[in-house]
Amino acid sequence: MKNLILLGPPGSGKGTQAERITAKYGIPAISTGDIFRKNIADGTELGKKAKAYMDKGELVPDELVVGLVADRLSEDDTKGGYLLDGFPRTIVQADALERVLTERGERIDGVIYINTPRDELIRRISGRRVCEVCGKTYNTGSFAPKVAGVCDHCDGKIVQRNDDTEATAKNRVDVYNEQTMPLVDYYRGKGLLSEFDGMIPVGDIFTGIEKLLGE
Ligand code: ADP
Ligand code: ZN
Predict the structure, then answer these.
(1) Rounded CA separation 41/26 (Å)
(2) Which pLDDT does position 93 carry in this prediction?
(3) Catalytic (active site) residue 172
(4) Would you call 123 a catalytic residue per the annotation?
(5) Residue nearest to atom 15 of ligand 1 (CA)
(6) Which CATH number fits domain 3-117+167-213: 2.60.120.260, 2.30.30.40, 3.40.50.300, 1.20.1380.10?
(7) How many CB atoms lie within 10 A of CB 174?
(8) For residue 172, which atom of ligand 1 is closest to its CA?
(9) Model pLDDT for residues 13-49, shown as the tens digit of each residue
(10) What confidence category does residue 142 fall into, taking pLDDT thresholds of 50, 70 and 90?
(11) Average of per-residue pLDDT values in the chain
């Protein structure tokens, strides 16, 4: 398995598993959310357009996403495989991805799906905090930093993402159910889907992923 997709609702722990997969298997994680946040921080045109949607918890329009990912996938570090985190998020994006890959004689080898119930998602997202400097995530409930407000790793300031408020979180989960959930059947139908229970401990989910990807 080489080219992977990480699929699951916001708050399912995709980012955490992506970090572990990257560390163990040495493939880059490509997070469209991170790319947009970087563009917002850098004040680019794309960032300005994306921010309006992200702050409301809506999806950025497909035409702004697909080209971006196609470009990213033509960079050299993806030659040995990659993990797409947060893309595709609609059937239109999934079809576009397939076209781009087919043209290049490539394909998706597997989809890791982390299934998590709605109530838990909203609880986790509203409690999520992130280091402004290194991006490490914390949670007010389950995973607080040693010193309040300060990153354990880099002493950076810990903040709440703009779109992690409870109201926006609810909208993001609804948007996920409507627009992204259909991808579960889409990839199951292609025989690519491996499903994991997002309620079990992070380490146990990763153990399952290791079984799938090999030691
Ligand atoms: P989460 O998985 O916690 O929602 P992400 O960082 O993946 O966080 O995404 C944050 C926001 O970025 C989304 O709510 C959406 O507005 C935008 N976004 C990210 N990826 C996509 C995508 N593939 N298509 C459309 N919008 C996206
Ligand atoms: Zn940090």
Answers:
(1) 27
(2) 98
(3) yes
(4) no
(5) 59
(6) 3.40.50.300
(7) 12
(8) 14
(9) 999 999 999 999 999 999 999 999 999 999 999 999 9
(10) confident
(11) 95
